[in-house]
Automatic annotation (TrEMBL):
It comes from the Eukaryota. Heme binds at C438. This is Cytochrome P450 703A2. Keywords: Heme, Iron, Metal-binding, Monooxygenase, Oxidoreductase, Signal. CDD domains: CYP71_clan (cd20618). It comes from Linum trigynum. InterPro entries: Cyt_P450, Cyt_P450_CS, Cyt_P450_E_grp-I, Cyt_P450_sf. Belongs to the cytochrome P450 family. GO terms for molecular function: heme binding; iron ion binding; monooxygenase activity; oxidoreductase activity, acting on paired donors, with incorporation or reduction of molecular oxygen. Its cofactor is heme.
């Protein structure tokens, strides 16, 4: 399968194998509505490392653990950049954030703020009470809905759980429920966030064919600008509200210095800026607010919905999860965060969910900073890298019965604690690895385990009346949700007093 290709700059170098391409479009038209599946078929046909030409952009894709390890760890310094896509420019403050920023001093500074100021163990611990309240709110919401006997929309319930956890930590307020500033603001906020994910996930032709931007028949770029502006209005309002509340606190001599009282926006407002400036630029603060909301909410909500869908489809798995929680926690109290490390079978369920439904099916695309070589093949500078984690989890060379949801396959022979966020073998990669790996993995894992533990401990779950199974069709996006929201019937399984 090794095709000799000539790149304009390096006439004799051999690019990795890949499909034949059309003039101008290259291989663009070979990617359809499910690009992760199209890219997987190309790996089946051409091998573990495939070269594509997408319009005027060089690209590679892989679903192979050793190649992924080489890209993300072995050559981390070459592949740690991001492409400046139009969505990133219009929706992430000109790539001034962390997640979509090209490699360089600005990304390093923003990433350091994330790691050393926002997502520290101490800071995350300081929000454990809020997370506990949100878990209780989730159970009570489902309990109240279960009394009607009607199917519950789990997408709505789990989306609210993730969003509330994130906004309480980030903004100090709940968006859905008693602490909300009003249903209209919450709905608008949720709507605009969904629109943001949709646009960030698009493979927009204008990124690959410059002439396309002149035509833009669906008005994509205009839409990106519109959404970017509406989100910016939200961020401006958030910052103004915080400044006003801090001024009032100062006038009343109240101090917010205790770390446990500071939400993320307060922390950012208190940090010095670059080059000796007293404060960070508002643009940087807005970009970080944006990243925290975008990176934390949908990823955990989508993972929870998939886990619930697969478990409801597999009643044996549900029974085993419940047996484990009953034996570790009992039936007289709710699951607490400190229980989560002891729920090894549930941890296998989450690992299996990530194998089949990774929240970032192509991670966030990486880009090479300079020319390099992988497995002897030439990779030009500025090559876009699609690490196909969806296809990695379904790679038949490394997994058996890939379409079966079987948590037992992750059970460690020595009975040790099941690791969710990383694994040396690179056979699943839910949070990536290397310089760009997810800095929110510990929080993400906690949000996922907690919601699942509570919902499986407190309720029995069945598909809606008349339906024997759960549809697991997916729809491609930056995170990849089920095509249809998950509906299921909940029946309380603990004594009434336990729920209050
Ligand atoms: C189940 C939950 C989550 C999953 C599955 C997940 C997964 C990912 C993945 C796959 C990436 C891309 C890595 C790469 O391109 O190599 C990423 C990046 C990122 N995630 Fe998460 N994530 C989750 C939760 C969170 C949370 C809770 C936060 C923060 C509060 C967060 C913040 C970020 C940030 C800032 C980046 C960009 C890192 C960079 O480019 O330097 N994530 N995440």
């Amino acid at each position: 399968h090794i095709l000799q290709r000539r790149s304009p700059k390096s006439k004799t170098k051999t690019l990795p194998p890949g499909p034949p391409r059309l003039p101008i479009f290259g291989n663009l038209l070979q990617l359809g509505q499910q690009p992760h599946r199209d890219l997987a078929s190309l790996c089946d046909k051409y091998g573990p490392l495939v070269y594509l030409r997408l319009g005027n952009v060089d690209a590679i894709t892989t679903n192979d653990p050793n190649t992924i390890r080489e890209i993300l760890l072995g050559q981390d310094d070459v592949f740690a950049s991001r492409p400046r896509t139009l969505a990133a420019v219009h929706l992430a403050y000109g790539c001034g954030d962390v997640a979509l920023a090209p490699f360089g001093p600005q990304w390093k500074r923003m990433r350091r703020i994330c790691m050393e100021q926002l997502l520290t163990i101490k800071r995350l611990d300081s929000f454990s009470k809020q997370r506990e309240e949100e878990a209780q709110h989730l159970v009570q919401d489902v309990w109240a809905q279960s009394r009607t006997g009607k199917p519950i929309d789990l997408r709505e319930v789990l989306g609210g759980f993730s969003m509330n956890n994130v906004t309480r930590m980030l903004l100090g307020k709940q968006y859905f429920g008693a602490g909300s500033s009003g249903p209209q603001e919450a709905t608008e906020f949720m709507h605009i966030t969904h629109e943001l994910f949709r646009l960030l996930g698009l493979i927009y032709l204008g990124d690959y064919l410059p002439f396309w931007r002149w035509i833009d028949p669906l008005g994509c770029e205009r839409k990106m600008m519109e959404v970017g502006k509406r989100i910016d209005d939200f961020h401006i309002k958030i910052i103004e509200e915080h400044r006003a509340s801090n001024r009032m606190k100062k006038e009343n001599n109240e101090s917010k210095e205790e770390a446990k009282e500071m939400d993320f926006v307060d922390v950012l407002l208190s940090l010095p800026g670059e080059d000796g400036k007293e404060h960070m630029d508002d643009l940087e603060i807005k970009a970080l607010i944006q990243d925290m909301i975008a990176a934390a909410t949908d990823t955990s909500a989508v993972t929870n919905e998939w886990a619930m869908a697969e478990v409801i489809k597999n009643p044996n798995v549900l029974r085993k999860i419940q047996e484990e929680i009953d034996s570790v926690v009992g039936r007289e109290r709710m699951v607490k965060e400190s229980d989560l490390t002891h729920l090894n079978y549930l941890r296998c369920v989450v690992r299996e969910t990530f194998r089949m439904h990774p929240a970032g099916p192509l991670l966030i695309p990486h880009e090479s900073l300079r020319p390099t070589t992988i497995h002897g093949f030439h990779i030009p500078a500025q090559t876009r890298v699609f690490i196909n984690t969806h296809a990695l989890g379904r790679n038949r060379k490394i997994w058996a019965d890939v379409d079966e949801f079987r948590p037992e396959r992750h059970w460690p022979a020595d009975g040790s604690r099941v690791e969710i966020s990383h694994g040396a073998d690179f056979k699943i990669l839910p949070f990536s690895a290397g310089k760009r790996k997810c800095p929110g993995a510990p929080l993400g894992v906690t949000l996922v385990l907690m919601a699942l533990a509570r919902l499986f401990h407190c309720f029995n779950w069945t598909p809606p009346d008349g339906e024997t199974t759960i549809d697991t069709t997916e729809v491609y996006g930056m995170t990849m949700p089920k095509a249809q929201p998950l509906l299921a019937v909940a029946t309380p399984r603990l004594a009434d007093h336990t729920y209050h």
